[in-house]
Amino acid sequence: MIGFIVAGLVIGALARLVKPGKQHLGLIATLLLGLAGSVIGGVIASALGTGDIFELNVLGFIVAVIAAVLLIGVAESLAGRNRAARSRAVR
After folding, report:
1. Which positions, given as ranges, span the membrane (predicted)?
2. pLDDT digit string (tens) for 24-41?
3. pLDDT of residue 82
4. DSSP secondary structure code for residue 54 in this structure
5. Which of 31, 52, 35, 33 is closest to 43 using CA atoms?
């Protein structure tokens, strides 16, 4: 379980490095998006027959980082909409 959390942090951090621009996400959001990306990467790698979902393999790691980058983009767009709605409500 601890290894899964560490992998999620590493994958989330790598995804934030790969994604251009500044992300307004905290450590917990990075961890959660990295964990979600690692699960997605593990499922896809397992479906392709490269190993079990909980095994660390190259294809699963690459897919996990890509999935985390996409998830960070979605999280940023949702957060941006919420910020814009709040700023309009304040005016």
Report:
1. 25-49, 56-75
2. 778 888 888 888 888 888
3. 64
4. T
5. 52
DSSP label at residue 38: H
The number of CA neighbours under 13 Å toward the Cβ of 85 is: 6
| The two structure tokens encoding residue 36 | 């979600």
Element of type H or E holding 21: none
What amino acid occupies position 64? A
User: CA nearest 59: which of 46, 47, 45?
Assistant: 45
Domain extents for the chain?
1-85
Specify the pTM. Answer: 0.76
Q: Judging by beta carbons within 10 Å of its beta carbon (0-12, 13-18, 19+), is residue 25 exposed, middle or buried?
A: middle
